[in-house]
Amino acid sequence: MDDNLKETLLEHKAIIPQLVASVQHLVETQTETNKRLEEISKYLAKQAVFSNKLETIDKEIREAFTRRDADRIEKDKRIWKAIADLQLTQNSDNGCNSVKLVNKDLDALAVSVKALTESTQAIHDTVTKYPSSATIKWVLGFIIICTLSFGKYTFSHIDDLNTMTHEILTMLKRDIQDTKEIRDVIYGNKRR
């Protein structure tokens, strides 16, 4: 048994350092895991606080709006009732004379506004009967182009007429000179 015990001891001697290294590694890993779990638990605690605060805020906002809506509805009912009472009083024979005068003024203004609206519509209808400004611009452009073309034509013909008049005057002066010379020859001889 000694040999068997020795062999077993040698095997255990080889395995024990591996086990020690594995246990040390396990302890280190467990320590790191514990640190991370502590950090996670801190964040979870903060998250729970935030979540609780958000739920409280949400609940308070809902309650505030519900109360405000109920108060507003009640206030609106009171305001509309007061307005209805005022209108009833003002429109009755016992109502305020100033309001009656203001109502007459409002009626007169409504008539004036209606008359202004009708005259504005009549002016609009009249204006829409005329051609648009773009059409007027095209027509004016066409007239200007025609005027310029006719002006150029007229001036060129006037220039031609001036040239022709000058030629005729030159010929007329030459004919007058020739006639004078012929007359001098004819009558100049008889006078002698």
In short:
The protein is mainly α and 192 residues long. It has helices spanning 2-91, 97-129, 133-191.
Plain-language structure description:
The protein has three helices and no strands. Helix content is 95%, strand content 0%. It folds into three domains: 1-95; 98-130; 132-192. It is elongated, with a radius of gyration of 60 Å.
Give the tally of β-strands.
Answer: 0
DSSP helical segment count? 3
Helix content: over 70%
Shape: elongated
Mean pLDDT: 83
| N-end to C-end Cα span | 197 Å
User: What is the percentage of strand-forming residues?
Assistant: under 5%
Identify low-pLDDT runs.
none
Helix-strand topology string:
HHH
How big is the Rg? 60 Å
**Sheet of most strands:** none
How many domain units? 3
Structural class: mainly alpha
Spell out the key features of this protein.
single chain; 192 residues; mainly alpha; 3 domains; 3 helices; 95% helix; elongated
Secondary structure layout plus pairing:
Blueprint: H1 2-91, H2 97-129, H3 133-191
